[in-house]
Amino acid sequence: MTKTIEQRVGEAVLQQPKEFVIGDKTFTVAPPSVSTLILVSEAISLLPQVQLDKAKIVEEVLFVAKDCRMLGDIAAILILGAKGLEETVTTKRKYFFGLFTRSVNETVDRKGELSKWLLEELDTAQLNKLIFELLKDFNLGDFFGTTTFLIEINLLRPTKVVETTASGQS
User: What's the Cα-to-Cα distance from 160 to each of 152, 156, 157, 163, rounded to whole Å?
Assistant: First the structure.
């Protein structure tokens, strides 16, 4: 069912989580925090910087494909958010033939698991569509506006005080 413009605007204003069905799994994706945007930006900066020659597009794409595992990480960060990348799980371990048990805290890398699953399950078109859909409602304009404003303030701030004297005076 196609949503009206009013419904989409209402969801964006209320920042309601969206559901994405990927393969046999359903993910609930919350609106991004600033921390999530920073992590996504860091992951994007690790993608290879290349100028593709249209005459040799196949060779060049295949040459840089080995460095594009970060696409799975980018999608995983967008889906999980900054807070959901790792999870601490308590497990019980048995020692001395099961006579003693001890609780052990282990950190589970949810981002790594989801990234690997996405890269194995999705084809290139599906991964492209997923990342595009996740980025579409990120309110990047607000983030860009804030950072641009702060950078301009920094540029306008005097960095060095210069004392001037009138000609002929010391």
Answer: 17, 12, 9, 10
Token pair for 6: 């009013």
Give the C-alpha distances (Å, rounded to integers) separating 8 from 4, 46, 140, 142.
6, 32, 16, 18
- In 3D, which of 137, 126, 17 has the Cα closest to residue 72? 126
Please list the residues that pair with 26 across neighbouring strands. 21
Q: What is the mean pLDDT of each run of 10 residues along the chain (170 residues)?
A: 60 65 82 85 85 79 80 91 84 82 87 92 88 77 74 68 62
Residue 100: partners with Cβ closer than 8 Å, 6 or more residues away: 94
- Terminal CA-to-CA distance of the chain, rounded, Å? 80
- Give strand pairing partners of 156: none
